[in-house]
Amino acid sequence: MEDSFEDLNERNRNYIADANNRNLMEKLTDFGTGATRCSDADEERFDLISPYFLQRLSKIMAQGAETHGEDNWRLGIPISVTLNHLERHLNQWKRDVLSGEIATEDHLAKVAFGIMAICHYQAVGPLKWGSFTDKDRLKDYLGFGSKEPQIESEAGSSSKSATS
Question: E-strand spans in the chain?
Fold first, then answer.
């Protein structure tokens, strides 16, 4: 007996589903409890970021939102200004530690904010290298010399430079 068109389509769908399942099964972690999970998130381990760090950073973000408005920083702050502020807070934290003084603000969380902001600007803008600051001076300051820093894409290639 010859298969009907519907039977052939069903068999084709099952074949594709089986192939997809085989590919997925190769990437699954079996926990020995009957539960499995895809291992595609192994390159990004958000579970390893300290919740205490995130809480301190979120308090700084709340203070900034109250003072400057929600997401003000995403509008673009010159990298040179961001670097100056984070280095100032790092120096203030060092000074407080060395002198034994009790800090009146969370300097390390403000340093973390500056680093986060620069990482954000590198990844999505609105800043490009040199758009708000002297490009050559900044590259020399950061130790890049004449080579543009490369930004990793989601696929892992570093084809996009920070100036593109």
Answer: 28-30, 36-38, 150-151, 160-161
Of 119, 120, 56, 44, the residue nearest 89 (C-alpha): 56
3 state DSSP class of 151: strand
Per the structure block, which two tokens stand in for 117?
């902001």
Kindly report whether the global pTM for this prediction surpasses the value 0.70.
no
β partners of residue 36: 30
Distance between CA atoms of 52 and 79, rounded to whole angstroms? Answer: 27
For the stretch 17-37, pLDDT in tens is 665 565 555 677 888 888 888
**Domain span at 57:** 49-161
In this structure, the answer to whether residues 138 and 61 fall within a common structural domain is yes
Find, among 159, 124, 161, the residue nearest to 139 by Cα: 161
Q: Do residues 144 and 130 touch, judged by C-beta distance below 8 A?
A: no
